[in-house]
Amino acid sequence: MNHNNDYKIIRLNSGDAYSNEDLTTLTNYDGDYDHRLTYYFKNPIVLTDEYELSIHSFTTNKIRTGATIEYPLDYFGIETFNNYDTSTYDILHDTYNADVIEETIQNVRISGYSDQSQTYFDTDAYVSVKIVKNQNNSNGVIEIVAIETRGTNFVLNDTCFIAKSQITAPTTLYNSFSPAYPYANFYITSINGASEILDVSLAPNGNNVILSYQAGQQITEGTFENITFYEDDGAGWYRDSGVVGIVSVVRTTGTNYGTIVVDEITNGGTGFSINDVIYIDKFELVENNPPNTY
If the chain, 294 residues long, is cut into consecutive pieces of 10 residues, what is the mean pLDDT of each piece? Predict the structure, then answer.
């Protein structure tokens, strides 16, 4: 038996499975798994010797609880895009075709753009797009018709890009694009489900003031790590939200008081949506830090 370090990276999409067997219909169903997916390779890997095969590692955007993969939870995964009909999204017909050929292309990778390096980069999100012919001319436009892999770390209204080279000849059979517009850009209109917190801002009615109990003495500045954020428990009190951050107390120029500034969220928790409210217990910031109070 051979033992070596050869490995293959295989990307599976549940929508492409050969079969999806409903295990709940089996008489010996034990409740652990509801479905079983079966895949076949178009180009099988032929092993001439006996090998010991195993999964060395795998990645998934889903939650894993033990051996169970739970759906859905894609932190900051893409749920919907907008679709435009402007020159940026134009697809042209090939010289040997009179009109754009309408087709749907799967597994199209979404790109991002770095303002710092002025370059495009790959993300971990994939979509299906459709080339739709214009009614008034021989060209067409790109429409995103399905989110295949939602990806991670996206933000609402992020601008994302599709390299048109992925969806035109020679990568596909048909169509072309203007070199002046090599990328089509879309922005994210919604994020999938509840997400972790990446950043926070002071609520309109929030009070982030730290006072000095000693007349004429300024508050003591400091930075505090591992500060717990709380959420409303729905019963008139607060509970641990699972969010942790680094917080500073800074003096306000010309006064004896200061303000609380959130420097960084180190653990974003889970189950949050945009405009949710979380709280800091000021006692954690004034305890053993005279003359600070609130």
Answer: 57 70 74 71 71 56 48 53 54 66 89 89 90 84 85 79 88 83 84 72 90 91 94 90 92 90 87 85 93 94
Q: Are 221 and 251 spatial neighbours (Cβ–Cβ below 8 Å)?
A: yes
Mode of pairing for the β-strands spanning 119-133 and 35-38 = unpaired
Distance CA 108, CA 219 (A): 55
In single-letter form, the type of residue at position 196 comes to E
pLDDT for the residue 219: 94
HEC per residue, 145-190: EEEEECCCCCCCCCEEEEEHHHCCCCCCCCCECCCCCCEEEEEEEE
How many Å from the N-terminal Cα to the C-terminal Cα in the chain?
71
Print the SS3 string covering 115-153.
CCCCEEEEEEEEEEEEEEECCCCCCEEEEEEEEEECCCC
Contacts of 46 (CB under 8 A, 6+ apart): none
Dihedral of the alpha carbons of 90, 94, 97, 103, in degrees to the nearest 10: -50
DSSP code of 2?
B
DSSP SS3 for 12: coil
Residue 123 to residue 46: CA distance in whole angstroms: 32
Residue 175: which of 98, 266, 73 has the closest Cα? Answer: 98
Tokens 């990568």 correspond to what residue? 171
Q: Which of 118, 171, 177, 115 is nearest to 142 (CA)?
A: 177
Amino acid letter at 197? I
List the chain domain ranges.
Answer: 14-70, 78-191, 209-293
CA distance linking residue 105 with residue 29, whole number of Å:
37
Bridge partners of residue 237, in order along the sequence: none
